[in-house]
Amino acid sequence: MNLSKLVTSTALVACLAVPGAVLAADLAVKITPEIASVDVVHNGKKTSIVRNQNENANVNPAFAKTSRKCPPFCIQPAQLAPGVETIGEVEVIHYLKQMSDGDKSILVVDSRTPDWVEKGTIPGAKNLPWNKLNPASGASPFDIADIMEKEFGAKNQEGLWDFSGAKTLVMFCNGMWCGQSPTNIRTLLKFGYPAHKIKWYRGGMQDWENLGLTTVKP
């Protein structure tokens, strides 16, 4: 079933509205009408994803800038590549919850460089800087293969890739003007990574911050 069809379904609500999460009636600013908070695991510790309850809160200054020089900070298309699904915040939270419940077939990847991650990231995401997967930035095919095997669960069998057990990757960076996760996604596709196993959160940290959702620092 297409995940987008699950967003408003009772199945997704049941998945996210878990014991320990804040009841919807307790918060004025909810994630959805039915979901107030979601508990996920970040670096081995439980973290609750909620929205900022201060209705007078403003955008994080790091993401308040409207214009950046293009290139390299150009607006990304809504569909990055055939078969790669573009998703939003509720879907990202759904995947994070699945991960936190022990589903090892999913990995949410923050593709940004460590200096940006230091300012805050999405709880439950693993930082794999984009340049570690980018040949143009010095990453060798061996470096990329190592990440695909050790982090993504792909198997290299005498030069041929087996992606049958590879993880579903949910990749993001700074937002719709950021090319870091798109660059990584295109690289993975060239290596044969299945498009249906790659999800792209186009809004990235820009939209996550703009919605007042919880961030964590390393």
Structure description:
With 218 residues, the chain is an alpha/beta fold. It has a single domain (58-210), classed as Oxidized Rhodanese, domain 1. The protein has 6 helices and 9 strands; from the N terminus they run H-E-E-E-H-E-H-E-H-E-E-E-H-E-H. The strands form 3 sheets. The chain has a 5-stranded parallel β-sheet, with helices on both faces. Strands 1-2 form a two-stranded antiparallel sheet.
Short overview:
This protein has helices spanning 10-16, 89-100, 114-117, 141-150, 180-190, 204-210, and strands at residues 38-42, 45-49, 85-87, 106-110, 126-127, 155-157, 160-162, 168-172, 198-201.
Quick tags:
218 residues; alpha/beta; Oxidized Rhodanese, domain 1; five-stranded parallel beta sheet; two-stranded antiparallel sheet; 6 helices; 9 strands; disordered N terminus
User: Major sheet: size, sense and barrel closure?
Assistant: 5 strands, parallel
User: What value does the Rg take, in angstroms?
Assistant: 17 Å
In sequence order, what are the helices and strands, one letter per element? HEEEHEHEHEEEHEH
Query: Which structural category do the helix and sheet elements fall into?
Result: alpha/beta
Strand elements, count = 9
CATH superfamily: Rhodanese-like domain
**Low-confidence parts lasting 5 or more residues at pLDDT below 50?**
1-21
Number of helices: 6
- Give the percentage of residues in beta strands: 15-25%
The top-level CATH class is Alpha Beta
Q: Report the CATH architecture.
A: 3-Layer(aba) Sandwich
- Overall 3D geometry? globular
- Tell me the strand order in the biggest sheet: 3-9-8-4-5
Level of helix content?
10-25%
* End-to-end C-alpha gap: 35 Å
CATH fold type: Oxidized Rhodanese, domain 1
Give average pLDDT, whole number: 89
Number of domains: 1
